[in-house]
Automatic annotation (TrEMBL):
PROSITE patterns: DHAL. PANTHER family: TRIOKINASE/FMN CYCLASE, TRIOKINASE_FMN CYCLASE. Keywords: Kinase, Transferase. One of its GO terms (molecular function) is kinase activity. This is Dihydroxyacetone kinase subunit DhaL. The lineage of its organism: Bacteria, Bacillati, Actinomycetota, Actinomycetes, Kitasatosporales. Signal peptide: none annotated. InterPro entries: DhaK_L_YcgS (IPR012737), DhaL_dom (IPR004007), DhaL_dom_sf (IPR036117), Dihydroxyacetone_Kinase (IPR050861). It holds the Pfam family Dak2.
Length: 204
């Protein structure tokens, strides 16, 4: 099992930043179909800010890494996804408390709390065609098997794919009504990338 120490969370966010950078064009294309074509740009800016904040501040605990990263996403991303992802990480980080290393069970619980905070902030539930459709199955998978990072990755990827036939009920895509059907949600897609980066980090 991976050791969930400060370095693990730094490596996760750095893998996430690399994935966002690599996939930014695809995320923006997905957002062009049902939004305003800025999701890749938004997250690229956000994760670049996270990367430089982590280099400058060197937070000393897993919780502090996630709280700092979340705050930077909130302050650097103009779109809806910034406050939502920022809330996910800040809330998960607060749940981890001051420990220098956390158990998989603690992290699974923290992720669940983070996803619940995103739902409270944005009002989305599973099936609304948002990032929740990838985050919630990932959190569920880890709740069932806290060391099952690969399963969480598959659950998030499956959740993102399953947004294609859905009609958006939250966010900008909801303005399209029925015309949002047939497109994969950009935020669910980036969420799957973040969980894939987590699985990758845990496997190394
Ligand atoms: P914006 O829509 O402000 O341009 P982004 O393009 O960066 O922001 O992010 C869009 C994504 O944010 C959507 O694909 C969706 O997954 C997610 N999103 C938008 N509104 C909500 C909400 N209320 N709850 C959860 N996720 C949301
Ligand atoms: Mg957008
Ligand atoms: Mg926008």
């Amino acid at each position: 099992a991976p050791v969930l120490d400060t370095e693990f969370f730094r490596r996760w966010l750095s893998a996430a930043a690399a994935a966002v950078d690599r996939e930014a064009d695809r995320l923006t294309e997905l957002d062009a179909a049902i939004g305003d074509a800025d999701h890749g740009t938004n997250l690229r800016r956000g994760f670049a800010a996270v990367t430089s904040a982590l280099q400058e501040a060197a937070p000393a605990t897993p919780g502090a890494v996630l709280v700092l990263a979340g705050g930077r996403l909130i302050s650097s991303v103009g779109g809806a996804s910034g406050p939502l992802y920022g809330t996910l990480l800040r809330s998960a980080g607060k749940s981890l408390g001051p420990a220098g290393e956390v158990s998989p069970e603690q992290f699974a619980k923290a992720l669940q709390e983070g996803v619940a905070a995103v739902s409270r902030l944005g009002g989305a539930v599973p099936g609304d065609k948002t990032m929740i459709d990838a985050l919630e199955p990932a959190a569920q998978a880890l709740a069932e098997d806290p060391e099952g990072f690969a399963s969480a990755g598959s659950a998030a990827a499956g959740g993102a794919l399953a947004t294609v036939p859905l009609r958006a009920r939250k966010g900008r895509a909801s303005y399209l009504g029925e015309r949002s059907i047939g497109h994969q949600d950009p935020g669910a897609t980036s969420s799957a990338l973040l969980v894939a980066a987590l699985a990758e980090t845990a496997a190394r």
